Structures are given as C-alpha cells and as structure tokens.
Amino acid sequence: MAWSTRELAELTGTTLRAVRHYHEVGLLAEPERRSNGYKQYGVAHLVRVLRIKRLTDLGFGLSQIAEMGDADDHPEEALRTLDAELAATIERLQRARIELGLILTQAAPTDLPPELAAAAKKAELSEADRSFSVVMSRVLGSQSLQAYAELLQNAPTDPVFQEFDDLTADADEDMRRDLAERMAAPTRAVRAVHPVPDVGEDSPLGRRRAGETMGKALRELYSTAQIDVLIRLEKEIEKLGPP
C-alpha cells in the first residue's frame, strides 16, 4: 500500500509543507511516483517522518537530525548533549521567573539585575545615575556588585546631592567648589560604612576595560561641571581625613 503526500502528513501528524521541507534538506528520501506523477510513500517513509517528528518534538534541530543519519535508533551522545542544553535552558528560565517575580512584587526597574534593582528604587536615582548603575551592573563582579548595591541603598539623603543632579554645565568655579565642599562630609560618612568597591578587583571585563567603560559612561552621562565636582569631591574627602 502506498500513501500520497497528504496522507503521509496526516498519518504522521505533520504538514504538507513539513514533508516537502524534509525532502529539500535531504532528511527524507524521494519516493517512487505513480504513472500519473504523484508520489507514493511506503512504510519506510512513514517510519522516517515519525522519527524526525519525534526528534524535533524532543528539541533537536533538523541539522542535528541530519547528522544522526537514519540507521542509529539510539543516538546516546546527541541525546545527552540535548539533555544538558535543556537543563541549562530550564535553569535560565527559572532564574528569569524569579527575577520577574521580584520585578512584579517590588515594582523594580527592568533594566537592572536583582542585586541593584531594589537598591536603585530606594535611592530614587536621577536618570544619569540610573544609567550609570546599568553600566556598573555589567562592569562589576559579584562581590563588588553587592557592595555597590549596599552603597546605593544607603546613599546620603542630604539635599546637597539634589543640587549636584541639577547642576548645569555652565556652573561657575565658585559654585562647583562650594558644592564639592558641602558634598564631602556626607559622602565620607556613607563610605565609612559602605566602602567604594575596587572596580577592577573582580570585574569580568578586567581592570583596564572596566576603567575605560566607567570613564566613558561618566563622560557621556554627566556634564563637564558635574565631573569637575566629582574630581573636587575626592580631593575634599582626602582633606577631611579618616572619619
């Protein structure tokens, strides 16, 4: 008994298009044709299509199935490889669900990892600070990221820091110097409890690239006046000495 292409598709629970595609990519041998030119499929074709469908349902791609050939009914190595890939996918999806749960329950920002999301929300960061935190999430290693999150969560609430956010690029030198001087004490107090992490210590980018990335982010996110204040701030903190 022979089946037409449509009948083969129905028997195997697939589609005409799929059967034709299997022919095109060399997975399914061409059958003999009747005198009227129509294809006539036999049991071997039925078994082959059912095997292809079974393997694709398991998660194999057509190129992987092609590599297996049609003689091996138990491709152990390929099955173990696929099992490891599926395990990694499941783990990634489980992590994603956990992160989604945190985002939904805490109304946390979606562009930050869980370690920073809650801290960033509590700190009420400016747009520039938040963008800088996104960059930092890619620059810092796990330990430094945790330290940075603690630093954000305990960011000083002194109104002087709002002045820094609002500082315009044309701020004169006296204004910048005064702002740096007033920011020094509250900044030092927070750092005493939550030291600034050494960015290069565990950065996945390495010390040099981490520094370059941070520098580029600072230059593009903050005005020249704000960067000048940050430079002056470090000098003012040095003048104050240990807390």
Automatic annotation (TrEMBL):
Residues 2-71 form the HTH merR-type domain. InterPro entries: DNA-bd_dom_put_sf (IPR009061), MerR-type_HTH_dom (IPR000551), MerR_fam (IPR047057). The keyword DNA-binding applies. Keywords: DNA-binding. SMART domains: HTH_MERR. Pfam families: MerR_1 (PF13411). The keyword Lipid biosynthesis does not apply. It comes from the Bacteria. PANTHER family: HTH MERR-TYPE DOMAIN-CONTAINING PROTEIN, REDOX-CYCLING DRUG-SENSING TRANSCRIPTIONAL ACTIVATOR SOXR. This is MerR family transcriptional regulator. It comes from Actinomycetospora aeridis.
